[in-house]
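Chain and conformation:
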Amino acid sequence: MLGDDLYELVAVSQQRPRQAAIHTAFDPSEELLWTATDQGCVQASLCPGLERYTVWSSFPVGHPVVGLLPTAAGVLSASSDTLRMHTRGGVPLLRMRDPALAGTTCCDWERSAAGHVVLGLSPQAEGTRSTGSPPMALVDLTAQRVVATAPGGGGVTALRSAGRLLACGGRTGELVLRDARTLRAEQTIAAFAGAVACVDLKDVTVVCCGLTARRGAVYCDPLVKVFDMRQAGRALQHLPFAPGPTRLRFHPKFSSTLLVIAASGAVMLSDVQGGGGNFKNYQVDCEGDALLSADISSSGESLAFGDGGGFVHLWSAQAAPRVNLFSGPTELPELHARPPTISLREGDSFAALPQFPAGDELPLSAYDPTATLKVGMAPRIVDPSLLDKLNQVDFVGYVVNPFFRRGAAHGEAAAALAVVRNRRQARRSERPSSAEGGVAALAAAGRERVGRRVPKGYRYVEIKASAAKVKFEEFDFSYYNRTRFAGLENDMANSYCNALLQVLYFIPAVKVAVSGHVCLREFCLTCELAFIMHMLDLAQGATCQASNLLRALRQLREAVALGLVEGPDEIGAKQEQDVSKRIQSLSRFLLEQLHKEAGLTAPTATLAPPDQPAPGTSITDQIFGATLRTSAKCLKVEHALTEREVRTFHVELQYPQRPPAPGEAWPRFAAILERSLARQEDIRAWCPVCKAYQPLQQRKWPVSLPSVLVLNAGIRTAHELAFWHPDSPAGPTTPSVAAGGPALGRSESGKEVVAGSPQWLPMQIGVHADQDGSSVTVTQDLDGPLSSSAAAVAAIQAAKDADAASGGAPEATPGARYELTALIAVIQEELAAVAADVKQRSPQHLVAHVKIPPMHADRELPLAASPSLSLPHGPASFRAMARSTSPGAAALLAAVGGSPLAPGRGFGVAGASPGRGGAGEVATPGSVERQGSQGRGGLPSDWVLFNDFCITPTTAQEVVTLYGQHKVPCLLFYTRVDAPPLVRAPSSAAPASPGTPVTPPRPLAPLVSATHASPIDEALFTTLNDETRQKQWRSFVPFDLPSEAPRAGLLLGIDAEFVALAPAETELREDGSAAVLRPARLGLARVSVVRGEGERAGGACMDDYIRAVEPVYDYLTRYSGLRPGDLDPGVSAHHITTLKKAYLKLRYLVDTGCRFVGHGLKKDFRMINLVVPPEQIVDTVELFHLKRQRKISLRFLASYLLKLDIQKETHDSIEDARTALRLYAMYKQLVAAGEFQDKLLEIYKYGRKYGWEVGGITAERTLVTEVRTQSVY
């Protein structure tokens, strides 16, 4: 270009004159030139004529554009606090405004394809950003969040990115070179005395210009400074430019050609490597305005300049220059010719005017103003259920079809949506004419809107990476859980069990009871439940899988017959699709199974007094068991009553068959529970006296009450749901007390609470039942204002006074007090337009509200900040919790960072969702006190919402708040406040010999003393290890106990192989690609452990092949090394064992404190269902890994570092574990020698050179060997 003479082709004013063109940039894909002004306007012009293409205001007037970055998808513009993305036609694509972006001064792409942009920030501004805020930020535009920051001093005034290097100019004159991936400073150069005005870089050359101070004034430094990065930032030369350089830009085609401009309009093209002698000078005619911006097109044929007067100048050495060598077509708008302008004078005829088209239709002006016209269909109504899913970008909103389901037939979703989409307003003639009817209609519409809202904390979160997710990053579970409680993954079959497992985990007696259980039965749900609870204990905020428990559940025939197992091949699952029925059946089956696995016979009906539990009962029976006495009276022949007693773990609520008549009060929860506990019904059954089927009158009443009362909500129809949610269309209309509505009491604020209020579900209840079944009384909210009748309370108190006065033990069924400690509910985000029955709803998922018990509150665990998931009733309750002395409330405050959430950033923020936004702000204790009485409306709360792996602290008010058919309760868990002490029954596995004294039952250990102690002792491990020593195996030699007894710190190599038990569920997208809806279900098939130290170092001590209990879909031989028959005990030559025995041995090694070395252990332990402390894991895939780069395979590392060629045709877990141990030894050698970082960079360099193929390294080694051989001879 230095040899060509440049001249100005065209100079045009922008659409909005006198707005300074402070930024110019050529489009990288089309023949367009972009300009941005100091008033927030962005304009595109067609090249080379600079005809106006599009123009819009990206920011309000007074907010200048500080950065303009065209890309293939559109154009990104930045102001001092906002990022905007538009299409070339001006349609908004993105708007991001964050307090962390306040003071933005410049920007550039870090990686435009990945949507990452680097922002330079000014020094901290008062009131906008906190003290010590970083001067640089890396923003992920897809996630709309700041992913990295860089600390610094006075701020950034200019920056430029080129590949992996980022050049930044500061206000104090320093030039900082940073790593574009991590923003870490690599070199710092003192370039100018004042601020750096502009910087650019290409390859290893960096140029910059800036300001200097002379005689107390600030001037543009007349030198352009050139630095070479290969020589530690040494200055190559200084290019003199007397007018004072303000903007610099390298030529895209020539590596050393530099464009320099000055505010006066002077332009210089110079060769930075020619010593300053090769240059050309030009002058842009700005007519007295300052020249502010410049850019060079990618083809190098066009130069663009912008001045302070709003003019854009296009220069070139050709008459028809190109912007890009291969530009795409530019979409142009359709141009319509304007009709000719006709002017009439006084004497002209009206025939000269354009005539209306011929036809029978009359113009609107010809109609009678009082006539009624048909104007087509009424306007559409946007269904309120769609508004919750509305995603809005500026003024455009869109909603994903809520009826779209995985694997559904084509057109099914559109047909289901048609009813909702085609709803229209009623005509005036169809609307209520009276004022009273109009008010009623508005009230009904308001109730419908309220009932259709569901907070975002309840919504289903799918484990799916974003489309623009960095290739080597994984799903971020921590974004959805900032507490120390562990979540459960939901991307596997039967994951509906997660809610029930979380509830059982937080029942202290259940946890203590099952944690000490261990046996060798292959499919023992008690053991698997203990393993799950152990994982949840150790995870500390991480996410776990319940795959082993679900595997055991799948092998139980009773569970399959009850429809508890999901899957296309399960008959029971096809018959039962309602998840509420399935979770209720699972709860009943699981409790009965735990009781049966205890190896005890059914307990007697009459329990001992509460202070002396019966020694023959299981822990499950003591916690959940309730005795019901049943009497049957023959209605045809009078004879003695037949009575019998049954044991149950559930109480199913029985609702009235008909709703109350108009004007009648709706029954309270206590009344429905009374009806459910003491039932009387007429049935036709077998009469043992008459020896025939007779009409019988059957009565049931409780004889003993459990420690945990499990209530099955049993909601099947909309009529039954109406008793729970008064705002549903079929529910009550909340009558007022003045109109005769039955008042239930007063709330904390003193307001009357009437039937049908949201507090219908009580937090506390009291139950009193007579032994003879004459009466069963249930009261609700004994400690609160919502009590039942005074007679019921007096009856309970009288029974207690009588027991105290007699001095004897209380009856087996005294008045018991319960409080709500858990609630499992079905969540439906979308509803059908017309659903007469609850089971006609769309697919659902389950959530669990759990009250955290003190045993979890007192444990000292590291905690994190709370997530900002949107739920109502939040900030007030957290402020109240700050003043509460409840241990659970104090623990929950600690779990969310030690202090309550600040107002407006916790559960009450409607805009804070799991998909966007960061963690909620945390207020200081002082700020909570300053809030004064704002929190008096909240209740002290220990509640947490478990939505699979999305865990959110909540409040007691939110627990009892329902959202119509969106939130339907399934199971209620009421824990007895005055629960009797529990005893651990003696084991029945080995009956006592005659004459041996019976050991009295020992009480359970105190709940608060529960620890992570393992029930897998040395004797059990020795038994399992000796089983493998009964035969000599070629692949491994078991531990030689006790000389090789596992100990803390013992180094072991480990690797596991898996097989596919079920294929992945996929669907085809519109573009023909396949989308994975649910990954393939994998199962552990082989696990190998290799000694890492000692005399037998490198030898395998464990090589277990897991017996296949279900058909294997794919052995994955290429990756696992397994073939058909390897997992069959009848034909396999390997050591075949059960999954449980292999798990017990690995669990013992983990609990002993052994250290495990392997490659990709995170996935292996996740699939095995083991949580291993991080200090016991040495993962070579993480050791040899650079951040934000691909992870290197074991085969490549072994070939490059160890000169081993492994995994040629298939994988071998022993070989892989042994190779990982050798890599770890090599890692320690490199670190000790101080060569690790250089070696790691060298590995990545070779990997990129040979495409990460082992063959390239082998070929190079062969070539080097041949060269050395030839040089010898």
